[in-house]
């Protein structure tokens, strides 16, 4: 009888230890979760969805110093499509939006092929939008990312996206 009591006591102690370890682990996980939630509450993810352009007051008056030559347009297209400019990631090859990447974006990008809206924007406005971007939505392409000349080449290419299509 004495032997059985010792064995039962050891089993009970092992069982109690296992329960205590389980409770301790649950408490640690719970505390980490509460701590993480508290940090998120103190530093919520910013809502960039309503951010808009921060352009100089005279942005629309800036004149394009780069003629829209075939060379300038080709250089702008290369930047638009390449990793350096990376405009294609959001705006797509035609400027109407990259449907495949929309789920990764915070909001739908501007339709650069819109034949009604784009002619109302001056070259200066487009240039400054490329230069400054929108915080949390569109990156700034100011130097050193793109030079001023490269941004003007991009303006010249972007203009071709909304140009009336010639009948074929």
How would you portray this structure in words?
This protein has 168 residues and is an all-alpha fold. The chain folds into two domains: 1-44; 59-161, Orthogonal Bundle (Cytochrome Bc1 Complex, Chain D, domain 2). It has helices at 2-42, 70-81, 87-91, 123-132, 148-161. α2 crosses α5 (148-161) and α4 (123-132) packs across α5 (148-161). The longest helix is centred in the N-terminal third of the chain and has 41 residues, at 2-42. It is elongated and about 85 Å long. The termini are far apart. The relative contact order is 0.15. The model has no long low-confidence stretch (mean pLDDT 83).
Name of the CATH architecture of the largest domain = Orthogonal Bundle
Q: β content, as a range?
A: under 5%
Count of all domains? 2
Approximately how much helix is present in the residues? 40-55%
Q: What structural category arises from helix and sheet content?
A: mainly alpha
**Order of secondary-structure elements:** HHHHH
Rounded mean pLDDT score: 83
Rg is: 30 Å
Give the overall form. Answer: elongated
**What is the first-to-last residue Cα distance?**
103 Å
Instruction: Name the CATH class of the largest domain.
Output: Mainly Alpha
What is the CATH homologous superfamily assignment of the largest domain?
Cytochrome c-like domain
Q: What's the main sheet like?
A: none
Number of strands: 0
What is the CATH third-level topology name of the largest domain?
Cytochrome Bc1 Complex, Chain D, domain 2
User: Uncertain regions: pLDDT < 50 for 5+ in a row?
Assistant: none
Number of helices: 5
């Amino acid at each position: 009888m004495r032997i059985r009591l010792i064995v039962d006591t050891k089993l009970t102690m092992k069982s109690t230890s296992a329960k205590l370890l389980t409770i301790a682990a649950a408490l640690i996980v719970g505390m980490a979760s509460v701590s993480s939630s508290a940090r998120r509450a103190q530093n919520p993810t910013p809502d960039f969805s309503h951010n808009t352009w921060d352009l100089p007051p005279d942005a629309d008056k800036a004149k394009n110093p780069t003629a829209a030559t075939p060379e300038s347009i080709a250089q702008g297209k290369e930047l638009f499509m390449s990793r350096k400019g990376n405009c294609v990631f959001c705006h797509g090859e035609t400027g109407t939006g990259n449907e495949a990447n929309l789920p990764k974006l915070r909001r739908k990008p501007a339709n650069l092929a819109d034949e009604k809206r784009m002619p109302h924007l001056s070259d200066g406005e487009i240039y400054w939008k490329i230069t400054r971007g929108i915080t949390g939505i569109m990156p700034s392409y100011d130097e050193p990312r793109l030079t001023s000349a490269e941004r003007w080449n991009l303006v010249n290419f972007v203009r071709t996206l909304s140009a009336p299509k010639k009948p074929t």
